[in-house]
Write a sequence for this structure.
């Protein structure tokens, strides 16, 4: 399903074929359920339709936050301490950002021109443009090993960037879409929506192994403390769990069309947003059981955890809002206006600012969630 249809789900009058990888999750949902006509979350927007869960990222080294603006080929760099935002020009069609916490640099995957832009974390300027090849989509950093990994949709290549030299090489990896990295073990997890396999790449010896998780898997998160990997399976209404040292995943029930997963490693709690039934599934990682289902807003598409304050944030893409949840008791604290079609989230835990990427001409919204952080103590 590389050629997806951007639409109002079942409303054919809004269909538009787009030759880009992995569109808004509404496009995926079109093929899974078609129960009622819904308007597209990007209707009337200037956005091309290419979105990514890593469209916004927090830099713990500098305290800055980066948000893509796909339309203008730029990254917005926000310094919450100075209450300032600047725009940095990058390549064409930026879609995803990764931060190397060791060198403080940000790396931007530019889907439009097949490059990765390297942004100096202190100077907020592009210091290198790397021609990694066509259709880079996901990007992730292993700051311990000093490696940046880039998936290239429509190819079988995984690009590996050396963060110290900006040199890069490619290895055949079976056309991955999403990437997750376990820096403790130098293990890279590569997930392709169509293939049904999770590819595990060992960065130390560059070996590969595959694990079947079933077709149409989308959304992936790692528990850095336990080494368990969680994968949302939209078509099966479940979350696949690959525990450390295991080769076969187990399945945990979720809601209808789970599409994004987040983990609180401190509490070993997993959260999966369910696009079709407007809910959040809460999973006890130690027991491997679903313990709660929390109603959220209209068509949720992203979830983020603030582990320091045990808060959970859900981006409701068609609801134009973010749901704030107390993770200690699974209680909804607030529903905040978040701009048009929010689809990706990042938290600055020090400033208490939640940064939201929007599918709109105004590409981001900043929400003050410090009052919820204060009440968590």
């Amino acid at each position: 399903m590389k050629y997806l249809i951007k639409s109002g789900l079942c409303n054919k009058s809004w269909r538009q074929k787009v030759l880009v990888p992995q569109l808004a999750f509404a496009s995926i949902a079109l093929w899974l359920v078609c129960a009622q006509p819904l308007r597209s979350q990007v209707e009337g927007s200037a956005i091309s339709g290419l979105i990514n869960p890593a469209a916004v990222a927090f830099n713990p080294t500098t305290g800055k936050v980066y948000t893509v603006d796909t339309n203008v080929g730029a990254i917005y760099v926000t310094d919450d301490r100075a209450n300032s935002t600047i725009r940095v020009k990058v390549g064409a069609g930026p879609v995803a950002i990764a931060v190397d916490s060791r060198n403080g640099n940000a790396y931007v995957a530019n889907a439009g021109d097949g490059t990765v832009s390297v942004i100096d974390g202190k100077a907020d300027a592009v210091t290198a443009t790397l021609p990694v090849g066509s259709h880079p989509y996901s990007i992730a950093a292993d700051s311990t090993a000093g490696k940046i990994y880039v998936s290239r949709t429509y190819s079988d290549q995984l690009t590996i960037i050396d963060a110290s030299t900006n040199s890069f090489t490619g290895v055949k990896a079976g056309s991955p879409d999403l990437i997750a990295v376990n820096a403790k073990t130098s293990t890279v997890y590569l997930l392709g929506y169509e293939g049904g396999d999770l590819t595990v790449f060992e960065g130390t010896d560059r070996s590969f192994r595959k694990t079947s998780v079933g077709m149409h898997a989308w959304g992936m998160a790692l528990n850095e403390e336990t080494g368990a990997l969680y994968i949302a399976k939209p078509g099966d209404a479940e979350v696949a769990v690959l525990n450390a040292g295991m080769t076969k995943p187990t399945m945990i029930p979720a809601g209808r069309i789970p599409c994004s997963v987040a983990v609180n490693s401190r509490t070993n709690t997993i959260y999966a947003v369910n696009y079709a039934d407007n809910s959040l599934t809460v999973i006890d990682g130690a027991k491997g059981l679903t313990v709660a289902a929390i109603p959220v807003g209209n068509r949720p598409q992203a979830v983020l955890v603030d582990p320091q304050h045990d808060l959970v944030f859900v981006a409701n893409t068609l609801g134009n809002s973010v749901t704030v949840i107390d993770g200690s008791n699974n209680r909804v604290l607030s529903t905040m206006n978040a701009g048009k079609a929010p689809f990706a989230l990042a938290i600055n835990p020090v400033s208490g600012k939640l940064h939201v990427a929007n599918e709109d001409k105004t590409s981001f919204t900043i929400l003050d969630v410090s009052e919820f952080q204060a009440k968590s103590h």
